[in-house]
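Lab notebook, bench 4. The sequencing result for the construct came back, and we need a structural model before the next group meeting so we can plan mutations. Quick request posted to the team channel:

Model the 3D structure of this chain.
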Amino acid sequence: MKKLFRILLAGLRSLPSETIIPVGGLYVKIRKIPPLLTGFIHTALRVCDGVRFHNGSTCRFCGGSLSGYDERKKRFAILIEDNNPSPVQVIIQRSYCRKCGNTPTPVEPFYPGTRIGSPLVDLCRSLSEIMPHSRASRYMRKMGVSVDRWSVRNYALMPLPEVPSVEVCGMQIPVSIVALSSLAATPPLSGTYDMDDILLACKYPFITL
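Done. Here's the predicted structure in C-alpha cell form:
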C-alpha cells in the first residue's frame, strides 16, 4: 500500500498544472487553477490600488476640525503579472486636530500585526484549512498572488475572527475578496474607489464623518 502511495505521489508531482493535498492520510489531486479565478482575485485586489484612507474632517477624540498631517503608501498585495511582481498599494493619511492636538491614524484594511491587506490574509487562512502552509503559498502563486510560506503560516495561526467564504470556481474564496470584486462592476468616476466601500467589503464597519 505504501509503495502504491509513493508511485501515486510521484506521478502527481510530475504534473505541474496540478496540486495535491493530504486528506485523511491519503494524497488527493485537485484541479488546475482556472484563469477565471486568477482574474477574479486580481480584480478584487486591484480595486484597492491607490485608495486613500483618512480620518474625515472631524476628530473622533474631541469633535474638532482635522487638517492634513502626512501620508504614506502601504503595500496591500503583490500580484504576479506576466511573471513579474506588480504591487497594489493604498495611501494612509494621518490628520492633525487643531483642537486637541492629536494626530489620529485612520482605520485601515489590515489586521493588527500583518503586512498585507486583510482579504489576502483571509485567503491565506482559507487555503491553510485544507493544505499545508507551504503548499498554500505555492497555490496562491498559481493564483497570481505572492505570499511566502512563512507569512502564510503566521497568518494562519493568528487568533483572528473566522473567515466566511463562498464557492467560486470550485474553491472556497473569502467573502471579503468576493465583495471587493463586486465593487469593480461599478468603476468610480474619480478613478479610485471610496475608502468606506473598501472597508465595508473588508468587514470593517467604519464610516468616515
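The radius of gyration is 20 Å.
Will bring this to the meeting.
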